[in-house]
Design brief:
The protein contains 2 helices and 12 strands; from the N terminus they run H-E-E-E-E-E-E-E-E-E-E-E-E-H. It has 174 residues and is of the alpha+beta class.
Length: 174
Amino acid sequence: MKRTIAALALLIAPLMASASVVYTATGGDYTFATPPYTTSMQITFQFATPTALAPNLLYGTYTGTVSSWSMNDGLYTLTNSTPGATLSLMLGTDATGAINNWRVEAYTSNFSNDMMILGPVDGPMSSASNGNASALNGTLATWNSSSSSVPEPDAAFLFLGGLTALGFGLRRKI
């Protein structure tokens, strides 16, 4: 009996795995740029959370879990795995959980790369700087989100382990 319950628990565990949500902001093309930046470049920012953002989140520093992030200014990319890179993330959401206000800044410890996307309260603006080069856009970024319901490999192993345990349990009873 205990083995059957354990096997069923292993079968159900993958079904309870939560999907991650990826949020993406895209700034408009730069309206001012010094080389090597050009006016055909823009800032993009992406971050992933284990669950969707809560509705009616008051604008402020986001304290939830960010499983990964990346920001690209057209030339350089900073990520959560870039040595010395820091992310400052302030968000607010509407009644549906959609991002309606933001301030995002990613920079390296020596500020050799600094990228920023500002929302309606602080901006609107997107900017990038690297040494003596900089770029700027004065329009609002657009946000999109997508969720992933693809099971992770661990979930598949749990499911197969549960089936195997259930099979051995039933075989002993026969």
